[in-house]
């Protein structure tokens, strides 16, 4: 009987993607086995607005349970367009320039598979969300990281300029940035825009944390910069904004030709997405601005709450300006390897975090850093701080 060599390169989804998936699974299993407080995975333990949840219940009860239109319901596409116009002054055609996807992850995968050919290079901010490397590898491309490295986690613009080659097809921009919490400002975004225009590059912007920004910082969509509207796909999701990560309702906006190509791939991934959730998300986008603002302020308080707990055990967090996550260097606790620290932590005090190393393509990069999720209820964060205090006694 013929055998398949699953170790061969054509069956690998990318080192970062496969390593991250393995470590996430390991940490989740450790959390269960040790009854730990899980600050590893980036999803909240509280729900979104009641009116949104009720709208989904009504949709199910009223029979909105079959395939929706391939590009998403007209109401949701219009709500996505209205949202972008209201918050950023960006305008799109809801019929031709918007598609609803099964979360932002599918939109990202479909965009990469649609436009990246074998041998193409995709520049991404490193460390990066684990699906990026996997999707680029599936397309036959090569991911090229540009450092957003600690301890300051600032984008290295000189490296960015240096890595553009004739093989570069796309720049993948994640801001607010997972896992570091960095939010790119106008100077960094202007440099990315200039390079994209100069070298005629496509740009895919992962903006899922667009509303989770703190301390008065503003999220600036790259599509609003000169020369960028016609070459940029903006990708976002309801999951982070409305605390409904399990609904998997995302979207992509961009020029009609780009959206059409993305749609051609998306239809062979999930075909369509979450019919009863679409009217609920449309309602939330139309009527949920006040809820989002309050949730953002509450999340900033959670950030500060966890930061205080980490400081109390000798860890100095890099305070994020956005996202669900903050980072610490674990060397003050006697570790030089975040993976070893995260494997020991559940046994030492019953808390789970994620090592930064799984988000890098470069071997050894991010070695002393650990990511902590603060999108948890206050009692959970307080319990984590109480348990972490045991590190000083162990």
UniProtKB/TrEMBL annotation:
<feature type="domain" description="Aminotransferase class I/classII large">
    <location>
        <begin position="35"/>
        <end position="388"/>
    </location>
</feature>
<dbReference type="InterPro" id="IPR015422">
    <property type="entry name" value="PyrdxlP-dep_Trfase_small"/>
</dbReference>
<dbReference type="InterPro" id="IPR015424">
    <property type="entry name" value="PyrdxlP-dep_Trfase"/>
</dbReference>
<dbReference type="InterPro" id="IPR015421">
    <property type="entry name" value="PyrdxlP-dep_Trfase_major"/>
</dbReference>
<dbReference type="InterPro" id="IPR004839">
    <property type="entry name" value="Aminotransferase_I/II_large"/>
</dbReference>
<dbReference type="Pfam" id="PF00155">
    <property type="entry name" value="Aminotran_1_2"/>
</dbReference>
<keyword id="KW-0808">Transferase</keyword>
<protein>
    <submittedName>
        <fullName>Pyridoxal phosphate-dependent aminotransferase</fullName>
    </submittedName>
</protein>
<keyword id="KW-0663">Pyridoxal phosphate</keyword>
<dbReference type="GO" id="GO:0008483">
    <property type="term" value="F:transaminase activity"/>
</dbReference>
<dbReference type="InterPro" id="IPR051326">
    <property type="entry name" value="Kynurenine-oxoglutarate_AT"/>
</dbReference>
<keyword id="KW-0032">Aminotransferase</keyword>
């Amino acid at each position: 009987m013929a055998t398949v060599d699953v170790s061969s390169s054509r069956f690998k989804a990318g080192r970062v993607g496969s390593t991250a998936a393995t470590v996430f699974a390991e940490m989740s299993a450790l959390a269960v086995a040790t009854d730990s407080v899980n600050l590893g995975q980036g999803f909240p333990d509280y729900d979104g607005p009641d009116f949104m949840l009720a709208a989904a219940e009504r949709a199910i009860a009223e029979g909105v349970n079959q395939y929706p239109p391939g590009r998403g319901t007209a109401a949701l596409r219009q709500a996505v367009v209205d949202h972008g116009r209201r918050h950023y002054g960006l305008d799109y055609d809801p019929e031709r320039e918007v598609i609803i996807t099964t979360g932002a992850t599918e939109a990202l995968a479909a965009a990469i598979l649609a436009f990246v050919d074998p041998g193409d290079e995709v520049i991404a901010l490193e460390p990066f969300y684990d699906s990026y490397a996997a999707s680029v590898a599936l397309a036959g491309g090569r991911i090229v990281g540009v450092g957003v490295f600690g301890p300051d986690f600032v984008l290295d613009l000189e490296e960015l300029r240096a890595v553009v080659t004739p093989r570069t097809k796309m720049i993948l921009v994640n801001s607010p940035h997972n896992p570091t919490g960095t939010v790119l400002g106008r100077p960094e975004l202007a440099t990315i825009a200039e390079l994209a225009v100069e070298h005629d590059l496509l740009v895919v912007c992962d903006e899922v944390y667009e509303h989770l920004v703190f301390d008065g910082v503003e999220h600036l969509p790259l599509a609003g910069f000169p020369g960028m509207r016609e070459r940029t796909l903006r990708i976002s999701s309801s999951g982070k904004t409305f605390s409904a990560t399990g609904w998997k309702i995302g979207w992509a906006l961009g020029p009609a030709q780009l959206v059409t190509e993305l749609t051609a791939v998306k239809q062979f991934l999930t075909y369509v997405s979450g019919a009863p959730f679409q009217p609920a998300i449309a309602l939330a986008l139309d009527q949920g601005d006040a809820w989002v603002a309050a949730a953002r302020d509450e999340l900033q308080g959670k950030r500060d709450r966890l930061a205080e707990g980490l400081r109390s055990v000798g860890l100095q967090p890099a305070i994020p300006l956005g996202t669900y996550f903050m980072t610490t260097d674990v060397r003050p606790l006697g570790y030089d390897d975040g993976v070893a620290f995260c494997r020991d932590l559940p046994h030492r005090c019953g808390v789970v975090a994620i090592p930064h190393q799984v988000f890098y393509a470069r071997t050894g990069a991010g070695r002393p850093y650990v990511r902590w999720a603060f999108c948890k209820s206050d009692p959970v964060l307080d319990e984590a701080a109480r348990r972490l205090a045991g590190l000083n006694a162990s």
